[in-house]
Design brief:
It is a single chain. The chain is built from two helices and 22 strands. By secondary structure, it is mainly β. It has one domain: Glycosyl hydrolase domain, family 43 (Tachylectin-2, Chain A). The strands form five sheets. Strands 14, 15, 16, 17, 18 and 22 form a six-stranded antiparallel sheet that branches. The chain has a four-stranded antiparallel sheet with strand order 1-21-20-19. The chain has a four-stranded antiparallel sheet with strand order 2-3-4-5, with no helix packed on it. It is globular.
Length: 321
């Protein structure tokens, strides 16, 4: 089956040449503003430290305007080795965007949050989930009074997707398993994690996620789809059996980390999903698909792990009752 997402002919959209002193530019968060598309690009310098730079484009493809300095840089102890892999969520209650990103330091990668009204000034909320944890993405509204965030803690070699809840965006708890890896032979059998921020569609919450398979040549990163219940996001409704997008182009197959497509941001435009992704951990690219085609990849699940292989009861919020 061909990939559901189609690469844009202008790819790659952004490369190291677009950022001063960059060794690589990849894994962008994405959102829409009144002026067009805003990307928050992870830019790694020649030391190996990453910072998050703002790039703006009216059409989301051409004429990118890049700020003269990064919006988020590693100037706190808990991010002394850099800021990585942002996911951007517009939060109507706050009238601001909240950025979930990986804060990397000598004690490992953790999850940090920041908020901004214009992508020119930013307020850091600090480290909210301790190492080792990453791939965090915030939902845009509360559920039963709490904020919810997808994240991916790591225990040994295991990496499943979880939900955490918070009354105030600062104090997080209520750990709830959301989606598990499949058996090792599967395309998402080594580890999984959030791709873009959760996207509200007619049927619930669309979650694009990355899946990793460990091959003889190294890890292979692809993209799958998952659908969560609109009012109870901890309940998985469906999941794609196949990947919907994988590395095929030369700029995805060859790079600092070969065989990687890694979306951190997505937007909805004219009945399409646009995903902005890191290609080969070296450049920024764009792929698009019709929403209806993306939704058609999702198959109903009946088990807790979201694999659709055992007839157990649907997942419910463990805090209920």
């Amino acid at each position: 089956m061909p990939d559901v997402f189609v690469r844009h002919r202008a790819n790659p959209l952004l490369t190291t040449a677009d950022f001063p002193g960059a060794a690589s530019a990849f894994n962008p968060g994405a959102t829409m503003t009144d002026d067009g598309v805003v990307l928050l690009v992870r830019v790694e310098d020649r030391r190996g430290m990453s910072a998050l730079w703002v790039a703006r484009s009216a059409d989301g493809v051409t004429d990118w305007r890049i700020d003269s300095r990064p919006l988020l840089a590693g100037d706190e102890p808990w991010e002394q080795w850099g800021c990585e892999d942002p996911r951007i969520t517009w939060v109507p209650e706050l009238g601001e965007w909240v950025i979930a990103y990986t804060a990397y330091s000598h004690v490992g990668p953790g999850v940090a949050l920041a908020r901004t009204a214009d992508f020119r000034r930013v307020e850091k909320l600090g480290l909210v989930l301790s190492p080792e944890n990453k791939d965090a993405a915030l939902f845009p509204r509360r559920f039963r009074g709490d904020w919810l965030m997808v994240h991916r803690p790591v225990a040994g070699s295991t990496g499943h997707m979880w939900l955490a809840s918070s009354p105030d965006l600062l104090h997080w708890g209520g750990p709830t398993p959301l989606l598990e890896t499949r058996p090792p032979v599967w395309w998402d059998g080594t580890k999984i994690g959030a791709g873009a921020q959760p996207i509200e569609v007619d049927d619930g919450w669309l979650l694009l996620y990355h899946g990793v398979k460990l091959t003889a040549a190294g890890p292979l990163y692809r993209v799958g789809t998952c659908l969560l219940d609109r009012e109870d996001p901890w309940r998985v409704i469906g999941r794609s059996a196949d990947w919907v997008f994988g590395p095929e182009a030369g700029y995805e197959r060859i790079g600092d980390v070969p065989n990687v497509v890694f979306p951190c941001g997505a937007i909805l435009r004219d009945e399409e999903v646009w995903i902005y992704y890191g290609a080969g951990d070296s450049s920024v690219s764009l792929a698009t698909a019709r929403v209806s085609d993306v939704m058609a990849t999702i198959e109903p699940v009946t088990d807790v792990a979201g694999q659709g292989t055992s007839p157990t009861a649907p997942v419910t919020d463990p805090r209920a009752g």
